[in-house]
Design a protein that fits this description.
It is a single chain. By secondary structure, the protein is mainly alpha-helical. It is 64% helix and 0% strand. The protein has nine helices and no strands. Helix 5 (79-97) runs antiparallel to helix 9. The two termini are 31 Å apart.
Length: 160
């Protein structure tokens, strides 16, 4: 794909479309189950910028800001937002189904918690992205399909 994505004779819109159709699905495979920490989010954003710089044939030594690269490509950052949207959609499906996946996602298993700082859960990240604040509010909102869809749409449009 390198020859297609870096070819200057192909319009940038066509190259962006090829990136979106062939590369991003491989990158996003299984993203519904990821827990996105700040570190992983930074790596995903860096990967997105790396793709754009390669398509525009910009060397790393060129002192161009990420905003300038995005303006030249006529694109906005969308990778992390798309992953969060897919996670929220999948979570709504799993929670309304109410089977074993529901128990795993909510973490309601018997036993002791491990020592040390607790790991960040996928529910915590989605609650902060959706702006509900609490996981319990997020779980309550999942039950109403229309409300859940509106919450996902609003969070995606805000770009947080």
């Amino acid at each position: 794909m390198k020859t297609i994505l870096t070819n200057k004779h192909i319009f940038i819109e066509t190259r962006k479309r090829a990136l979106q159709c062939y590369i991003e699905p491989v990158l996003k495979y299984g993203c519904e189950a990821w827990t996105i920490s700040k570190q992983i989010q930074n790596k995903l954003e860096a990967t997105e910028m790396w793709f754009l710089r390669r398509m525009l044939r910009m060397p790393w030594t060129a002192k161009k800001t990420n905003e300038r690269v995005l303006n030249e490509a006529n694109k906005r950052r969308s990778l992390v937002k798309t992953i969060r949207k897919r996670q929220a959609t999948f979570l709504g499906h799993v929670m309304r189904r109410g089977k074993l996946e529901h128990l795993v996602t909510t973490g309601k298993f018997e036993g002791k918690r491990s020592r040390g700082r607790q790991r960040e859960k996928i529910m915590d990240g989605l609650a902060s992205w959706l702006g509900t604040g609490k996981v319990s509010d997020t779980l309550a909102a999942v039950k109403d399909k229309d409300l859940w869809r509106d919450m996902i749409t609003n969070a995606y449009k805000q770009g947080t």
